[in-house]
Batch of 3 targets.
Target 1
Amino acid sequence: MPETPKSPRKRLAIITTVWRYLSHAEHMGDRFLVGFPLNGRWHRPEMDVVALFVDQKSEGDQSAQRAREFGLKVYPTIAEALRQGGDSLAVDGVLIIGEHGDYPKNEKGQILYPRYEFFQQVVAVFEKDGRSVPVFNDKHLSYSFDKASRMVAASKRLGFPMLAGSSLPVTFRLPDIELPADGVIEEALMVGVGSSDPMDFHALEAMQCMLERRRNGETGVKAVQLIQGPAVWQAGRDGRWSRRLLEAALSRSMSRSGKGLEDGRPQDLTHSGELEALVQEPAAYFIEYNDGLRATLLMLNGAVGDFTFACRVRGLPKIQSTQFLLPVNPNVVYSACLMHKVEEMIASGVAPYPVERTQLTSGILDLCLESKARGNQRLDTPQLNVRYRAPQTSQFCGAPV
Amino acid sequence: MSEPFEISRRALLAGVPAAALLTLAEGRADEPARRPRIAALVTEVRKLSHGEVILDRFLEGFGWEGEHYHPPVDLVALYIDQTPAGDLSRERAARFSRLKIYPSIDQALCLGGDTLAVDGVVIIGEHGNYPRNEKGQTLYPRYEFFKQTVDVFRRGGRTVPVFNDKHLSWNWDWAKEMVDTAASMGFPFMAGSSVPITWRIPSLEMPLGAEIEEVMAVGPGGVDSYDFHALESIQSFVERRRGGEQGVARLQALRGDAVWDALEAGPTSRGGWDPGLLEACLCRSHQLTPAREGFNHVYPTPADMRRMVRDPVAYRFEYVDGLKATMLLLNGLVGDITFAARIKGQAELLSTLTFIGGDHDSQPHNFDPLVWHIAQFMCSGKSPYPVERTLLTTGLVAAGVESLWRKSEWIETPHLAIRYRPNPNSTFRRT
């Protein structure tokens, strides 16, 4: 007897911390329920969310409503969700969305989202049932680099495709630049905003997706340091980060604070002295790569409201700079960009970009916060010896074809 | 490390003659030896008024291609028509010593003397307290400012480049007279909206010589204001089509339920429009109001649109060469301006967002490329795009207003058989 033909529509399980309006689970999960805009059409993925696990059903929980309307089921455990209540794995893809919800912070200020724990339970089902399917993990793999590395190792061991990370690497860029493949990057600077450790992760991964294209590919990070307060400005004066690159990055910002907020003027924040007045608690994340590249993330809360990047590439006369555009609430179109990549992976069985990008970024963040906790010391990071090659093809929304 | 741009900018700030810098200033060979002096004639300067956002970009500079850029012209004279509460013009004049406010247009252009003393004129007749006529048009005094400018030109026998912000006038005859005057006196004239030159997401251009069959733009806003922006966006794409621009033959404006009836009628042949164009526009929007509570992004049904949109307006018009166009103002459904085109022989529609948005505290960055182009225009005397584009869109706004006034009559527009050739180079912000 031939096997019953498999349904052409893939089945998805979403494992999440909370599902309420404008949570990541909502604006990512709903893309598979109601569709999303793609290249000027309303696109409905050829796949169905069939199972949900929701760790915290707090006020505003929408999971029961979604289950009723879209014919999916909320299960009390991750294993039951993956097996759809049966006795073996019964989905073709898993989305782990461990963002938002009420979770404790550790002494380093990291929110202890249970992504690793969710992932371990997913992997336990894969191992027990003898079959694996593609897994997407939203944002960093874990607050802990060690846990993040174990997640990546499990995906290699069991041989399932894995995609992870922020939406910034795949969102629109203004302008829509990509760094040349195999270019020599001389120095790089990223400007970000928001709290740690949700938003600095986005900024670090946005920078990583630009830098990983450099000559000889990604070779890992040998040391990191996070400094704060007036020392950040002093480091700029000492040449540890480039004010010229900062000017270039801020030239891409659309949301400069300062006098512009009061009376509209498009102020030059970099050279007016205004920046130092606006940013009460600056932070600089210094990253020294194994191949010698030095990169800096400046978190400039109070000065800007967006994410911008600048770098020098050998042989290019102009500084390369862009903004990673985060389209506004409530549409947050960037999450459609990211979910299209998830859809691609589940449909094809191939991750469109390496999970090692997110592994390395998770580690950079974890160790920068370790540096902060240890009095802003520079830390050698032999463990961040993560090597990978970036895809040649641009992966972001609106990339020139 | 030496930086050509850095040297250029710093040196210019320090007052070093630009000509001395030409060897250093990469890409700035278009700078004349003396920095042009500009006069601005403005209805009002309040936070985020067009007067403020344009003047301040000349005064403060703005972020441009990797630097905080200072345009190579000096804004030296200002005539300000109204100074309501919140006026910023006096604060600006006090802080920038080279800028002086004059009590009349004549004196501003002559820097207080008897004869034209500036190298360029910027007319910004948008915002301010001006009366409306019975058709709902705000009677901004752009034509009046232009006329007084021309009087000074005539008196001294010398002309300089003139930029006019937005449409030329609410009154078609006056708009035509403005363009004819510039042509007969031989001075460069540039006008229009910032929407055709802002970022596009995705960043694409209409191929030169494309055979376009039908187009649409969807935006928010009202008649005699944002309709102009959406129309000028349409025009900046379609003027590149095969055969060049030949103008518009007729236009009809719809309002209220008639818009939805047309939408549900189906394609143009049945009195509606290509439904794929509307889908493409809504799918390029970053500000599509969710049709359902609790969902952040859903595609609206026709019933949703009827429920959500306050006072829908459609202008449909036919070009002389047969091209069909629709502009929809869908307040309550969208917050940004999108464009879509069906091109002969291509399965996929061309569509994009003309991006003027951003987050809550975002700056009006669409005025960065506008001021960049104005400054280049003042230096070179060459408009980046023909003023006939804005003459045509000015006529389309007036025809739309007229059709609404006449309860959606088709308006024949033989006066809009305006022929021109576009700039083959893209002028929107893409780097």
Note: DSSP finds 13 helices and 16 strands in chain A.
Target 2
Amino acid sequence: MKQPFPAAAVLSALVLASACAPKEPWQARTLIFFDTVCDVNLSCSELEYIEAEQEISRIFETVEALFAPRAADASSPLVLRLYGRAQETYRRSGGAFDITIAPVMELWGMYNGQRRRIPNPEEIRSALTLVGMEKIVQKPDGLRLAPGMGLDWGGIAKGFGVDLAAQAMIERGIEKGFINAGGDLYCWGTNPEGRPWRIGVRHPRRQGYLAVLNIANLGTATSGDYQRYFEVDGVRYHHIFDPKTGYPARGKQSVTVIGPETTVCDALSTALFVSQRPEDILKAYPEYGAICVSEAGKITLAGKKFNVSFGR
Amino acid sequence: MDRRDFIKGVVASSALAPLLLSLRGEDKAGDTADALYLLSETPQACLPRLLEDLYGQGIIRARHIDLGRHPWAEDLAAALGSWKVVSRSERTDVVLRFESLLEAHRPSFTLVRNGRLVDWRKDNWLELWQRMGADERTRRLTIASFSNRREAAGLTGEAAVISIGGRIIDRISLKENGLRIYPGRTGRLYVRVKRGALRVEEAGCRHQICVMTPAASRPGDRILCAPNRFLAEVEGRRAWDTMIG
């Protein structure tokens, strides 16, 4: 008869080993970049985190400098790389996403340090003559913009920064984590409980969440009329402009896009917010899905479906 | 302890302010945690039995306890053999507090659920109740509070952390109404707490995004004033790992 002892010994050794296993270190920090809060949560030691944060800061500072409103640089490889992505979304969205919207943004005083105001229709018509990505000429040494034109990277640069930072973290060997730059997020691996990341989507009209996404190895971004706006006589004028009209796009409170690249989520969320037919745009993006909240507060899901639960 | 003894004996304790508010129906947030009040010289002798019973009834969901700064924490940890002792930063089901009352009272225990005093002196607890009643009077009050449904759902927060430039400078209770003023790069920020919610009432920043942000009351709710690098965030258990939008 076999002795039960060895099996019991192995079992208790295993139990003991698992009980003594060091707790997986997680580093959660809040940084401020892009004029917003950036939450970083990485599965690594404190020592590894110091270097990781330095790298994230370096990437975000570079992106902030290169893609500031009306930034002069139109020739560096990073600018040309993101320009390619922006052009792709411009084409596929029928012009609903357009980085040449800067003159309109400026006219409405939407940039930092400007006074916000409602321009008259003539001013808007004049600004619109400077809008349209087809007006940009791409030469081997950089982009050529007509006088008065300007680039607004606000609808894509943050997502690009998050993708670059998350990729750098993954290359460092950090297997799990998320980087959330004011709502532009990429998450990979599992959360500290070994489950998919639970991403709360802010309610566009009150504190608290609209939905919780349970996702991994995906990006997400939101465009909402509540993020930057001013009100005159009870009418809300927000920062997401329709490049066709020069006025804030109407019909939605927010659009959240989920998909493999945060850069694309970022640009698509603006495009879907502006477009009256978001489903049509999403046909060209089979890997992406969206949660749209209409002006009346009605929630609809479009495109690819993800694990999403709706709360209070 | 019967209802009269409880009100008479324990009313003086500052720890009971939220409870008394909820009993009077004044707590609009409705976020008072359920709690067990134990008047005893030796809480380690009877608390484990009482908590085990609450766990058996499903009132407490998991055998996790935060002993806080209870003076008999070590003894309690030893007596609560099958319970996991956790710190406040982790998910906690039961949190202990200790109060020394102004006057000594007859040893007893009382359960408060959903803002109501529950008469618990029946079945197996009658004997314990009678035995405790024969003990010497005591000033030692141990309060074991556990999340009720609203808190478990992440609907309310107890406090908000204020940071400027990434450095935590204050922690405000959301249980007390009041106004605090913080210095900022563009002028002062006036932060008001009213009925469990915090909002920036006035700020010297240009675009007033912080002032327009809805009041923060639930765990994870935030108010940011980027020009002042000011951030207020409500603490507490959340239904998400991070928030976007």
Note: The interface with chain A takes residues 153, 155, 163, 165-166, 206-207, 209, 213-218, 220-222, 224, 226, 229, 231, 238-245 of chain B (CB under 8 Å).
Target 3
Amino acid sequence: MTDAELVIMVMSGPDDGQQIHLSQRHGDGYMGADGTWSLVLGRRDECDISIPFDTQVSRQHAILRMTSEGELWLSDAGSLNGTFLGKTRVEKPTLLERGELFRLGRTWLRVQTDDDSSE
Amino acid sequence: MDTIGLQDILTLARQESAKLHHYFIGVEHLFIALTQLSGGLTVAVLEYHGLSPRFVRYSIRESVGRYEDRRYWPGFPETPRAIEVLNLAKRYAGIHTPSERDLLLAILDEGDSVVIRVLNEMGANIAALRRTAANWTSPLRPQAPEVPIQGDVQLDAEQMRVLQLMFRDYGQVHLVRELDGGYSGARVLLVRPIRVDGHKDAPVVVKLDDRYAVLYERRRYDLHVKGTLPSTTARLVDSPTVPDDSSIGGLKYTFVGRIEDTEPVNLREFVSHHEPEDISDLIRGLFDSFAPAWWLQRKPYRFGVWREYEHVLPPALVVEALPDEKADGAGHVLNPLGAWSRTGRIMPGEIVVLNGFTVQKVDMKRNTLHLAAGSQPEAINRSSKVEVRGIEVRGVDTEGTVFYRGEMVDQIVGRVVRTRDDLLLRAVQELEPDFDLRASRIPSRHEAVGELPNPLIEVNVLLERQISGYLSTIHGDLHLGNILVGPRGDAWLIDFAWAREGHTLFDWAMLEASLLVEYVARFVPPGWAGVWGTLALLASINRGEDRVFEDKHPAARALTVLTTVRAVARECLGIQERWNEYYIALALLALRLMDWQSESVEARRLAFMVAALSIAQTQMPSPMGSGEVTWTDITTDMDQTELRMDD
């Protein structure tokens, strides 16, 4: 089975411009039996994508899943301030395009396309 | 100096970031800073494309939001994206420091920041903005928004502008109060700068003065002061702020040592609220901390008095400028450092030709040039002072002549309107003397003080005398306004404009004269009788008596401080217990203070009579016995510095 990988760029705040490289092989995320790779986003250090300086981000804020087909699904994990795709609040798991901006608290993030991350 | 550089933009960005409680520098803060440069490229480009800079700012702030006032790190770290943008701007700038345009293009080209998203949302065409920015050719004059300056010190627009430039890195500036600067026209302020994040920095002393004076002071400081300061004292920081298009500039002194919350006061204020004993302790402390590197250097020095002291007196001549052709070979040709300035032989009405003098000061308001031997602050270079009036100094005149400070003037022809003797005479006349100013002696008005020599008659004789003393680093203007006292009683010096290698006792005679005029004079009963009473007490100090310690009169109490100055001076005498050296200095410096218009008539009367008493001291038979042939008279060809004999 090939290694699951993602590059996420922070698009605002003190880490604006930072790229977070995630790879299953390096122990990021959780690989389910059905081949879905789950990543936890939140304020805590233990999160796969940790956003420590945004007080509007909950400790465990959102989950990003990548199916074995490579589809990305974003869902809120019961956060206080919500998860947004563009301007729409994410109420149920929602399909996320690469390159699309989404927001936790006041931190904007973006899953990089292969073009972006090759830089 | 006036143009906006990257540092200024970063400062504005920090201010913006602090306002939003972000405490980091992102591209959004950099861009907001650019939109705040009124008259700048960013504003011009946005407006050209129909975007209001204010609305752009508002939209960016709306998008990023304001954070809670809590910090997770010290300082203002740059975001990875801001670093990328700044590096790009540096690449565009090449060998130069990045300009506003470089930074604007970098932000537009990076293309992925909050700024770009907001501009896109507003319907802006980023590519078009970039084209406009890259091709903009109309002249621009960007100006940073002003730092708020508070405090009730009255300053003119020019002084405010220099302060703005000096503190452009700060969020606001509080003018605590003015430390009165004395006679020179400089403004000395105590200023507390407050950083953009609200942190209050330690107070600094700011001096606003003529641009050349400011530049000179910095040079003096670097040359004579910097390496010789004790660990706790005022230090000059930063380069002087001297805008190209301004006639003034500013200097900043900070204090090493503990300031706490109480701000320093100058000695002039300190003496109002403290006992003579405290003032004495302070002066002793000042000497002890500076002396090893300054006054106790003790390099034997033999000099003609005029070399060190002529410049403290009024100009030797005041001359009304004449057109060159009027010279026509007639008139005295005067060169700098000639004896003409001390002989009193040149009379009003005579024509003089001034050759090779250097401009010390250009007074545009009065069309007056102040000339002296040279431009360096060494005392000898400031000798041969001449004031030339009625000369067109403003702008370029028909002859194409513009005078600037430090310039050597080939030739100026003029008619003498006043001599130093006239100027001194007029100054004393203002004091309403009750004795004949043209007589050689002043009749005694107190039984403990005999008749005294008239300083107006004696001054030129004094200048011609020789002194064997010491040479050391000196402050050169040690009056009460230039000594600052911290809350713990530390003494600091400020104003190093005249710091130099010079006669060691200059500073201490200056301090004594200043104490007499600015402190003791407050306790002198009005009228000439009060002056003579004080003089009698001073004469007792001269004789080494303890009378002032027993007398309960306030003036006597104040005079006890002088015994401390004398104790210090004793350590600096060229020859043990030969006080002539000191009294000559004191007489001439007292004459200088007699002319300080800011002082009361009583204080100036006291100054004049102190000069008279001091001259009398120098005329007394030496302690080695009267009628003695003084050593220098018979040793003129010998190595005088080795003998170090006075007179």
Note: The longest strand of chain A covers residues 5-10.
